[in-house]
Amino acid sequence: MATVSAVADDERIGRIDMRDLAVYPMDHRIAAVSCGGDRVTVDWDDGRQSRFHAVWLRDNCACPACRHPQALERSFLLVDAPEVIRATAARVLPGGHLEVEFESEAPGEPPHRSRFDAGWLRRHCYSDWARAERAWRPRPWDTGSRSIPPTVDYRAVMNSDTGLAEWLTAMRDWGVVLLRGAPAVPGEIQRIAGRVGPMRPTNFGTVYDVVSLPNPNASAYTPIGLEPHTDLANWRRPPDYQLLFCVANEAVGGDSILVDGYGAAEALRESDPDGFRLLATQPIDFRFHDDGCDIRDRAPTIEVDAEGQVVSIRFNNWLRAALDLPESVMEPTYRALRGFWKLLRDPRFQIRLKLEPGEMLAFDNARVLHGRAPFDPSTGHRHLQGGYLDRDLVLSRLRLIERG
Ligand code: OGA
Ligand code: ZN
Ligand code: ZN
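Above: the input record for the complex with N-oxalylglycine. Below: its predicted structure, written as C-alpha cells.
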C-alpha cells in the first residue's frame, strides 16, 4: 500500500475542472491518500476519512475522454471497462487535489489517469458520516408556534435571488410558505411561478379559478367545505407543489386549513401500526371525470421509502373511486382510512388561516394536505387562483441560485 503525504500548505491552490457547474468550494484539504487497489482512502485535514471505490473514481473521471467537455455528461462506458477496476497509484497533486492511476484497460494501453478536485471529492464523499451530514430532513411542524407557515415578502421574491431562495427553501423544508403583499389581480400567480419555471398543466388548465360556479365540475368550485385532501390524487403523478393565490376573499367563511400529513401519518403508525401498514401497501382507486376527461389511478394512501420514511400522502374523499380490493381487505381498508382521516382532522396537526387578497400559499402536495371551511357566497366575493409547480424545477432553481 503506497502512502503519499500532502504537499506543503503554501502551494498554490489551482482547481480541477470536474465539468460540474455546481460550486464545490475547497473548504478542506487532503492530508494524505493511500491506494489499496479496489479503494482509495483520503484523509482530510479535519480528521475525517473518505474511502472511494476504484470503480466509483473511474466512473467519475472528468477528463475530456470520460465526460463530454460541452455537454458535461458522462461518455465513459462502464460496460466496456474491465470487469474489475483497480487503482494502482494515488497521489496528492500540488494544489491539494487527488490524482489516481488505474490498471491498464487493454493490453498495451497506457493506464488511465484521473484528477479529482478536492472540494468536489469532499462534496461527493459517500462515507456514512458524509451521507448523514448531507441528508435532507423535513422540518417538523410545531402547529402551536408562529413560525408556521413561514412568510415571505412578494417584492423580495420577485426582485432578488435571496428572496426567491427564501421562498423556495421554505417550500422544500417546511412544506408550506405564505407569500404576502402581491397585487391582488388575476394572473399574478403565473408571474410569481415564472420565477421558478413553467407551471404544470392539468385537466383543470395551467391556472384554474377557484370560484363558486353554477355548474361545478369539481367540489372546489362550490361553496362547500373541503375536507383535508391532496390534489389530483387520481393522477399517476400528482402535482408536487401547489400554489393558491387569493384575489378576493370577502365571503363569510372560506378559511384555509393546512394539515401536517407527515405528522398525522406518524401518529397513525404509532396508534394503529396495522392500519398504517395497510395504507402504506394497499393501493386504492382514484378517479376524476367530467365531459372532457376520465383520469384514474391506483396508489397506496401513504407512500414510504425503502427506509420506511413517509414520502407522500394521497388522500382525497371526492376523488376516491369505487374501491376495487380483495374482499378480505375491504373492511380493514375502510377502517384504516377512517382512522387516518380522524387524525387529519385533529387540530394538533392543523393550521388555519384566512387568506387576504394578494397572499399566496405554496405547499408540498405530497406532504401537506389542504382544505377549506365552507363559505357563504351571498356575503361576498371569493376568488382564488391555483396552479402547480414541479419539484424538479423548484429544486433546480434553488441549485442555480446557490451556483451564483
Ligand atoms: C383546491 C382547493 C381550497 C380553497 O382548489 O384544490 O382545495 O380554499 N381549494 O378554495
Ligand atoms: Zn478519464
Ligand atoms: Zn385542493
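Notes for the reader.
The longest strand covers residues 241-249.
The chain is about 25% helix and 30% strand.
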